[in-house]
Amino acid sequence: MQKPKLMKRKVVIVPNSGFRDEAVPFSRAEMKPVSILGYTGKVCIVLLMVIFSLVQTEAQHVLKGKVIDEKNNPLIGATVNIQGTKKNAVADNDGRFFLDVNNSDSVIISYQGHFDLITQAGASPERTFQLKENAKSKLDEVVVVAYGKQKKITVTGAISTIAVKEIQQFATPSLSNAISGKIPGIITRQSSGMPGGDAAQVFIRGFATLGNNAPLVLVDHIERDMNDINAQEIESFTILKDASSTAVYGMRGANGVILITTKRGTLGKPKITFRTENAELTALRRPDYINGYEYASLVNEGLVNVGKNINVGGFSADDLQKYKDGSDPFLHPDVNWTDVVLNRNTYQSISNLSISGGSNVIRYFTNVGFTHESGIYKVDNLNKFNTNADLKRYNFRSNVGINLSKNLKMDLSLGGIIHLQNYPGNTSVDIFTALKRTTPIDFPIKNPDGSLGGNPDLVGYHPYGIATQSGYMSYFRNTLQGTFSATWDLSDLLTKGLSIGGRFAYDYYSFNQTVRQKYFGVMQYKGIDQVSGNQQYNLLREQLPLGYANSNDASRAIYTEASINYNRLFGNHNITGLLLFNQRDYVNLMASTSIGNLPSRRQGIAGRLGYSFKDKYLLETDMGYNGSENFPKGKKFGFFPSVSAGWVISNESFWNVSFVNSFKIRGSYGQVGNDMIGGERFLFLTTINRNGLSYPFGDNQQLSPGFDEANIGNPSVTWEVATKSNIGLDLELFSGMLRLQADVFHEDRNGILMKLGSIPLITGISQNVIPYANLGKVKNKGIDALLEFKKSTASGWLYSLRGNFTYAKNRVIQDNTPDQLYAYQDPRLQSSSINQPFALVATGFFKDQREINSSPVQTFSTNLKPGDIKYLDVNGDGKIDDYDRVYMGYSRAPEIMYGFGGTIAYKGVELSIYFTGATKTSIFLEGPSMYPFGSNVIGPNNILREYYDNRWMPGSANARYPSPGDSYSQNNYRRSTTWLKDASYLRLRNAEIGYNFQSSLLNKIHLKETRVFVNGINLYTWDKLKFLDPESDDGSGSYPIPRSINLGLQITF
Amino acid sequence: MKRLLIIIVVITTLAFIGCKKQINFLDKTPDEDLTLSDVFSQYRYAETFLTSAYANLPREYNMSDQSGLNPFIAATDEMVISYAYPYSHNMVSGNWGPSDIVSNPGGYINIWANSYQGIRKTNLFLENADKIPLNAPAFTKEQRDTWKGEAYFLRAFYYFLLVRTFGPIPIATRSSSVADDFTKLRRQPLEDCINYVIGQCDTAQLLLPIKLGDRSDYGRASKAAALALKARVLLYGASPLWNGNSDYTGFRDNKGVALFPATYDKEKWKKAYLAAKDCINQTEAGGFAIYGQYNTDPVATRVKLFLMNNNNEVFFSRNLGFSRIFEGASSPVSYGGNAGYCPTQEIVDGYQMTNGESPITGYNPDHSAKINLASGYSETGFSPTADPAGNYPAGVSNMYVGREPRFYADIHFSGSLWRGTQMQFWNSGKDGHGTGSSNYPITGYLIKKFADPSVNPQNLNSLGVLKTWVYFRLGEQYLNYAEALNEYEGPVGDVYNYVNLIRKRAGLPDLPGGLSQDQMRNSIRHERRIELAFETHRYFDLRRWKLAAAVDGQDIYGMNTLAGTSLQDPSFYIRKKIESRIFSAPKHYLWPIPQSEIDKDINLAQNPGW
């Protein structure tokens, strides 16, 4: 066995490179390593060639060749070149090709992922060529980078990718959920499972700005929504993390970039793939509230706690008994509203049909997909309309490539995404708020006469009424994406390696919302009249018929791009260059203000210059020069440069560590910008609000319009600048069995655009008028890494293991808040991170009145009781107030995310399993149902069992929450460590078992491939919360995220 | 040749896309959108700027949520609000502080920000008003001066709203620029604040007509408003809280500047009574008068005083447009209301009998009333007959019989009639606690004052009626004058005259003669309490008299609304404690300066006790 590193070095010895200038267009295939023969073998070939050419006379004939792989499958699209000539052929669907050859010609047969075969044509008219798979072809993989592709070995920036297969194992309508924990450098959090609203937040390398942290998402190099894309349409998924890989995006790139490309057709007969998968979704951790008896007892307990008589506002023993035994279900109801409103299980179905193929002239890929996810709300079968949440999505994509000539290629891509969404007449927030507010004993679901129950304080809060009797809302969203692009290879016309390209994209989005809401009727049942024997009711609200409202939204975006590309090898020196001009014009067609309707425009130039020597020393410089109309004249354009370098040490001649196939270190440094300023336009202008507060003058009080300041302009407002450095290494060991990629990064984000925080209210400048300025500073640093292990055995076993890790820790350096009286409250002095909780430190609960009296005064409330939260007097001034708050815990978005898993395959059976986890993240469990009382609601809230089981009671040693009182507690219901919990988790994120049917069997029924699989998502979670999903928003729960068990079938014809 | 041609085509195309057409691609900015200087280049635009300065006037009739900026009525002994959320609950229970008055999500009251926003608008208007080009006859110099006068008055009034709440405050005489050093904004000594308000009033009154002539101007400030504000702020400044208050003598800012006058200055009372008298004289000469005839139905007169918008007694009011909010909050559930605004037993006990005697003289330890036998008041039994004047039907408790006319104009009580049916506040009544609603009159009373009987709260489609909230009226000035004069000169004739004018309109006999200064003081304070009930005076009066610690720290009582099965069930007519109230002196005499403001401007001293 040859040393792998030597095999690779043969590439440059292939004697064709010297002839390239003559005619053969530059092609990547030629860059591939030639391998079957060793170093000496190659020398022999050269010698033989020389000998043959001298000795043999020309003897031309047609070579009928067939190219196969090691398993004797035809290699469709393999290219056959006669060395030193332009003559070439491409293998057809059976792997066959015809080529006029001379016996002495050297033919080079290439196929991606395989070693090139160089052999003499010989005299035989029919030959079969078997190509060997190149196990370490990863080195020659190309990765998608900004505005193009690049050979992986020459990449000097920080880029990570995810195998599309891994995304596809995760059946979800929202792509953002499928990448969670699977790519180094990404932090995600999915807080809701609502159909149409379940997308996870995605951040690249955590948070680096106090403003908008969303990464730039590009689908086929155009700004588009990641969550509209169907997983089956994707060809590659790449994230760009450092300055070098994102500088070309200039003021758009600082938050990192997600690049998604969709599939293209490949040479060959039409390949039809049908994939369908159907899942049962189970809502995880639905809210668990206490029952009626427990609830009523808790009300009494609260009254006793504050020294009140339970005869007033409390429940008698008789009441309690009735709640317990359910003997009086109408006047003493005990309703589990969660069960009344929410189902446990629902379903999801995703089907896709794609056709792809191509010839030398045309390549095509077409996919139609249908996604259907249904919600967990219960429905009333008497309704003539559906009230459940429901998402139907139709995806259509057609990518057609045409080779107009050998040098001119065109691409026409069309995508259509139609969303049909349905929801109850109230939002999920309304429904979950109703669950948090309405207690099990407030009223029965239905009164004896069938009407919805109610009491005067909770009219409109009936959870079942809100979910099923409030009408419905339907959304229609329509996205059209069209891209036309062309590249023209000017190698023949001008100079070798030069090409130009252009791209034009037009996207149109429209949204239509129909709201058919209604008031449901509410009756209060008051028992049976003693005298008449009739049921008594109090009509609290009349039912109203379905209303009608309709609203629309639409936008369009036009993108234009022109580029010049250069890529040429001069001996050992490879030069690449890119100069690109682009502009984008986005209009919100339905904007409510004239300013909102003005086009949002961006324009810029991107450039790249790369140099590599023998794939050993790599140097690249990238720059973006671009601008936005949103900034003042003279501040519109910014220049964002970066440099990066790499050293492939393993390609050095002194490198002789045999088990290390590839070892590269790389580093980058540069600047990128962020111009996302929260949708605000023209912050440099001082403007007047023509719809300011009006006033009714005159005895008939006619409203007179009021003009008011709308915005105080800041003439120097501009983008934020990120200065990023990155050092990374790429390592491949044991012939590619083990692969490690690791990056350390550091970022300084300066000039974060924020509202001046130093302007007091005394100025009379109201919050919405206060100007923005580039004031904030944040540092962000961390590491991300990937480790992969892959092994196949001779007996047919295949193992793989992989893991990744991301850690991003930010620090607020300047946030434009006023100086704090106490250093421990200053976010800058405390090095606190963005959105880090700021709260009181609870030291426990007051045991008794004596402890209250002997403790520092807690100023929030004057009547403390035993069981109330006792706070730490941080500044020791003898009283507890807001000055005792400190920074603590972690932000809601985790600082560390990781994932690991593996695959075992043997003879068609494939088992894979993947875990993801997050840590260094905190959640506040707060608000109604964690707090027994709300601040601006009448009466108490519903109570989560979590609170009930862990509340303070006299003598309780392990209480986690304060004791209940009889009203909103200013002392207890504020942010403190009592409510702040560690939201770390480890999930069995997904697992899949699949079976590929044997191809011999399939051939009989004209199928190429058939695979059945079962996979599961969110199968188990280890965490500290137990009752609420650890990815939830702060609060006390919302639409739960699902576990899914998904059964699928994929057939290829 | 072919190659060259292609090169030329390519380069030209790129150049075309890259430059020519796109050179101005990013220069698109808003078209003709107004800037501040545009506003003052046309009088019509300038007028709208002044209009928005009016819009910050608080809607004090909304006493339960922040839009009214009026937590005061329910935070003193006049009222309890039965809803849980109003900020007044935080205040009376002591659960409030510098951090939550501007940002507490539980129900904040942002008087600070609202007033300063109004001040900024008036500052900007006054700084630019002279730039408004005249355009006679549509826009004359006189009109411009009137607008300036209005802006001066509004600026004075917003500062007054701040001073009465926070005490000494920073005075911004010009609009701040965002580049200013805000730490230079310091609290000004109280006397400077008061003088500033007076100065603004003096400037305004020179520019304004005494009374608005044009009906379409109703709601705008007039000279009468400026005179009334000046008189009120001088009265406040002469009062014990502000005038040589020993609690505040040591209160200094971080430069050592004393923010309150250290010594009592009796002459302030003189300035106060002169200003009140000047206001009375000038307004009466200008066409203002006490509303209603002295010899007609005093109940109806009082009701109409607050329902007849812009009547002759009103100097300045907040126009509220069509509204039914107050009617909703002050009607019981059976009327479609929310039974929110519940007068206390304390104020009910404060209304006198028709003979001018107080019904009770105080309370026993069990909080039963010490009845003033001379008054003819009784707490037992029920009236067998209806009131001939129609103020109550037969069968109501004797507690509500023979009370002064203002009682029947101001208060709904159990058994009283409203819109044709009877109020049933007892437990099992249609409006009572037994309905299961927490919207029941928690004290056994609801406010009748200000509520328009023509508004049907049950009709959700109704817009309500055009309403106004009266900030200044002549009746108040009579009492201001009497109070200040009594403090300065003792109970001289004019003191009697003006108090008796108020009593006479209310259908009450004159004050007895020969009162001492102290007795007169108590009589005037009583008269203010009843005459100006629920008009946002009591809270501030108790504080400036330094009586709040004694009064607003007491428990609040009402009827026993958790009991009662019928109108004549005596178990209902028992005084029950509604809530305990907390008042820490001197802390609660003034509101705290918002913490966020102190954070941004370290030179803002916090008020004592906070």
Short description:
The complex is a heterodimer of chains A (1053) and B (610). By secondary structure, chain A is mainly β.
Mean pLDDT level of chain A: 87
Helix-residue proportion of chain A: under 10%
Q: Roughly how many Å is the radius of gyration of chain B?
A: 28 Å
Number of strands of chain A: 50
Q: Which segments of chain B are poorly predicted (pLDDT under 50) over 5 or more consecutive residues?
A: none
Number of strands of chain B: 12
Helix content of chain B: 25-40%
The assembly state of the depicted protein chains is: heterodimer
Largest sheet of chain B: 2 strands, antiparallel
Q: Can you put this structure into words, describing what you see?
A:
The complex is a heterodimer of chains A (about 1050) and B (about 600). Helix content of chain A is about 10%, strand content about 45%. Chain A is mostly beta strands and about 1050 residues long. Chain A has a 22-stranded antiparallel β-barrel. Chain A has a five-stranded mixed sheet with strand order 10-15-16-13-14. With about 600 residues, chain B is mainly alpha-helical. Among the domains of chain B are: about 200 residues, no CATH class; about 180 residues, Alpha Horseshoe (Serine Threonine Protein Phosphatase 5, Tetratricopeptide repeat), CATH 1.25.40. Helix content of chain B is about 35%, strand content about 10%. In chain B, helix 8 runs antiparallel to helix 9 and helix 14 packs antiparallel against helix 15. At the A-B interface, strand 26, strand 27, strand 28, strand 32 and strand 33 of A face helix 1, helix 2, helix 3, helix 5 and strand 2 of B.
